[in-house]
């Protein structure tokens, strides 16, 4: 099996490199710790940046008709909520693997408990959760006063969900049950921490939340866990391994991850028993998808939570999770909410950003300096404020850049500016539960010349509804530490939870 150290680089050179990298890391680590301490105390504001975005694919529904059908048609205890894993069930080995013995002489104390009964308890809990979720899809009005009347009202007033009842019930079941084991293996700064500010912030914030010891979802022992988190940071690998040593072959990223999986699958039985289907990673870096290059067979079931959710690059909506990209201002957990009323929004459509990628070229060609109502800039003049422009615009154009995800979508949501997704093969965040058509507009690349007509054809009353829905959507893209109900971190966990519900592990 390939390891990080079986590399084409001569071993002494590699260790030399490693050592110098580590010395360097030590200082950067000190720097990053101070950076980290600032993140609660150091306010600064800047929405001015230029980045990218892409298209959507709604094929992954939290479609509960489908849930009940595939669930009730199976009698072997294996459950499928979305199609992919159930179709692959007989071939990917998930349904038939059983726990094996293991010696855990490292971080986890051996328990005298019977492993099979642990797994059985977990699976019985998941089965009850599935049953309750499915019931919620059938019974339209459920009185949820026991779990939070206000929160139930919040969800049930919204048309932003594919199925409000199912979403609500599923979220409550998750809060009640879900336990996540975060592997202890690996060293700082590549593992256990990530960037908590700027465009990759969701990667670091999620890792940090799971490592904080404050998450109600943290399992005390891996035997209690429904899902297993591999807390390495692709952004950190990029910064601390590839940037200092640009000549390092790129497949070292894949080797690092493969090696991490080798370690945990040798030490514990969990990876092997599910072939990785209850294991996940989180990355907002463009290179996130690259971890699977090289040994695709290892990653067939592994859940990748990625900002770079590009279906043309192997992102599978049924297995992977689309992570929102949020450009967190340094020292903050929130981005400004800009609440201008629809009637105060004088610009029809706005975009400012660098001409990255194919789609923005098309956008510039048709709209740069062409129209007072559709304002498209490659560089916003210094005298103008990006945030103010968003607050004055009805629609904010979110075209693809070099990669599919962009913090622009979330910024639009907080600016009360209806996002216009111009992209191909982008799976929008939380699109398994959120109905993006209720609060965003999708325009195909071919229709870029028609942007103005298409947006003008949306009636004022429809626009006002979309604008109002953005307010509700904001809660799902808000970062709280520790996380709170329905916020971004819990929505990410909920997406992972849904994928776990797809898998039944038999003992
Ligand atoms: C849910 O699935 C059913 C059956 O596959 C399909 O007919 C229906 O259109 C789907 N609903 C949504 C909202 O996707
Ligand atoms: C697993 O471990 C138990 C207790 O140590 C032992 O009795 C049993 O034979 C082992 N099973 C396998 C398959 O090795
Ligand atoms: C739900 O519970 C509240 C208070 O417990 C009650 O006032 C209300 O009538 C109930 N709603 C339904 C539909 O049963
Ligand atoms: C990751 O993939 C992208 C695009 O496929 C490529 O440009 C980049 O060099 C890759 N990086 C690594 C480390 O594999
Ligand atoms: C998991 O599978 C790998 C590859 O087959 C094997 O080397 C490893 O020992 C297994 N792990 C455990 C804990 O049995
Ligand atoms: C999505 O992936 C395809 C295939 O690698 C690539 O050609 C395309 O540029 C990507 N889209 C974006 C916006 O990065
Ligand atoms: C959306 O997903 C479906 C099913 O995975 C696929 O057939 C379709 O090509 C995808 N559409 C786009 C635009 O990627």
UniProtKB/TrEMBL annotation:
The keyword Acetylation belongs to this UniProt entry's keyword annotation: no
Primary location recorded for the protein, binned into one broad class: Golgi
A Pfam family this chain is assigned to: Exostosin_GT47
Coiled coil region boundaries: none
Intracellular or extracellular location(s): Golgi apparatus membrane
Molecular function per GO: glycosyltransferase activity
Family stated for the protein in its record: Belongs to the glycosyltransferase 47 family.
Name recorded for this polypeptide: Exostosin GT47 domain-containing protein
Organism: Papaver nudicaule (Iceland poppy)
């Amino acid at each position: 099996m390939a390891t990080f150290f079986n590399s084409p680089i001569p071993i002494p050179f590699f260790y030399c490199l490693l050592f110098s990298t580590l010395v360097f890391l030590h200082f950067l680590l000190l720097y990053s710790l101070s950076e980290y301490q600032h993140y609660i105390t150091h306010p600064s504001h800047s929405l001015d940046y230029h980045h990218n975005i892409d298209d959507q694919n709604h094929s992954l529904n939290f479609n509960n008709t489908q849930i009940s059908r595939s669930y009730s048609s199976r009698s072997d205890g294996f459950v499928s909520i979305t199609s992919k894993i159930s179709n692959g069930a007989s071939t990917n080995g998930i349904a038939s693997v059983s726990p094996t013995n293991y010696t855990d002489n490292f971080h986890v104390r051996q328990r005298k408990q019977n492993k099979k009964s642990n797994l059985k308890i977990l699976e019985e809990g998941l089965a009850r959760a599935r049953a309750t979720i499915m019931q919620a899809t059938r019974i339209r009005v459920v009185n949820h006063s026991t779990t939070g009347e206000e929160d139930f009202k919040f969800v049930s007033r919204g048309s932003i969900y594919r199925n409000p009842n199912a979403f609500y019930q599923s979220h409550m079941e998750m809060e009640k049950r879900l336990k996540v084991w975060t592997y202890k293996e690996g060293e700082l700064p590549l593992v256990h921490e990530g960037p908590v500010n700027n465009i990759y912030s969701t990667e670091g914030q999620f890792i940090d939340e799971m490592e904080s010891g404050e998450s109600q979802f943290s399992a005390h022992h891996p035997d209690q866990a429904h899902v297993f988190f591999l807390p390495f940071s692709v952004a950190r690998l990029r910064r601390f391994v590839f940037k200092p040593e640009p000549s390092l072959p790129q497949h070292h990223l894949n080797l690092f991850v493969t090696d991490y999986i080798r370690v945990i699958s040798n030490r514990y039985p969990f990876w092997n028993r599910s072939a990785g289907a209850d294991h996940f990673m989180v990355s907002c870096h463009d290179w996130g998808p690259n971890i699977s290059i090289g040994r695709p067979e290892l990653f067939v079931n592994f859940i990748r939570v990625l900002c770079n959710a590009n279906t043309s690059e192997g992102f599978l909506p049924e297995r992977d999770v689309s992570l929102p990209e949020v450009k967190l201002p340094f020292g903050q957990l929130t981005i400004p909410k800009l609440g201008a009323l629809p009637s105060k929004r004088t610009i029809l459509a706005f975009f400012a950003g660098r001409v990255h990628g194919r789609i923005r070229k098309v956008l510039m060609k048709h709209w740069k300096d062409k129209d007072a109502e559709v304002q498209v800039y490659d560089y916003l003049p210094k005298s103008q404020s990006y945030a103010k422009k968003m607050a004055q615009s009805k629609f904010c154009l979110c075209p693809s850049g070099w990669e599919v995800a962009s913090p622009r979508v979330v910024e639009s949501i907080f600016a009360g500016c209806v996002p216009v997704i111009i992209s191909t093969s982008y799976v929008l965040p939380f699109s398994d539960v959120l109905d993006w058509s209720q609060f965003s507009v999708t325009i195909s690349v071919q229709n870029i010349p028609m942007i103005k007509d298409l947006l003008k054809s949306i009636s004022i009353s429809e626009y006002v509804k979309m604008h109002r829905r953005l307010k509700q959507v904001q809660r799902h893209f808000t970062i709280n530490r520790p996380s709170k109900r329905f916020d971004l971190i819990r929505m990410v966990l909920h997406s992972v939870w849904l994928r776990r519900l797809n898998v039944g592990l038999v003992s």
